[in-house]
Amino acid sequence: MSLSNKDLLETFLKNQELYGDLPGTIKSKRIILSTFIKRLDEQGKHLFDVTKTDVENWLMTMSEKKVSTKAGRLQAGKVLFDYFLEDDLVKKNPFKESSEKMNKANNKRILRPILSIGDVIKIIKAAKNPRNRAIIMTFYKTGMRANELAQLNLDNIYWNERRIRIPKRKGGSPGDVYFDEECERSLKLWVSIRTSKGDEALFTTVLGERLKYPMIAIIVKEASIDSGVGKDTNDPSEAITPHVFRYAFTTHLAGNRCHPKVIQMLRGDADASMLDRYTQFTPEQVRLEYLRAIPKLGI
Hints:
55% of the residues lie in helices and 3% in strands.
């Protein structure tokens, strides 16, 4: 006999907690998914029988309730059904199908792939060498853009503070991002074997030259395909690119209740409103809030 929808949700949440989700993330997923399950129970429908139509109808009924953003709802549902897929309990992920359908219907704003923490772990583990692993880990742990990573030099890393100084962010000004002990281990391993022909670039090719964006994008794409998470496609709604990790960084920090202003500062975004001028954080406060909220991958 199949478990009830509620029991399946609790089993899933315990699994997520086991794999490193913080209490805030678990709470957020429970709130979002409980509303979905309540609707299913009212209709007498089991989770294993859900279709993309059920997902779309649910999203439409919640449009005015502001329980979470549409992306947050899709992410929570996608992770739940990815969990079911791994255990062969369902054949398809209706949340993924729904997201793809919305992408095609909305050409103005593409909903990029949503990575769960489990997806991130798989992709990093699939990276072919320490350099590629450090690149992907850095994307996820810092949220920096691909062109920002490409311009980094060795002296941009302040190891004692676990801080990276990006020489030129969007808009032309420098900016700081932070990293945790997991990212530090990956970076130090790469630096210990890095080859160079006098170039101070942090990430280099096998010939010792600075690694540039086209190759960085290929590294991310190949690891995502090898992991089974990504597809061999150029469709922006399905392809795993460096920007997808920036999106994952943002959504996962937000899911762990990181202050929106801190996320904005770490991303290097321009001020979103006049109110931002009155919400000030010291670098140390930003660092501590980041370390509190960034997910631990256990790798």
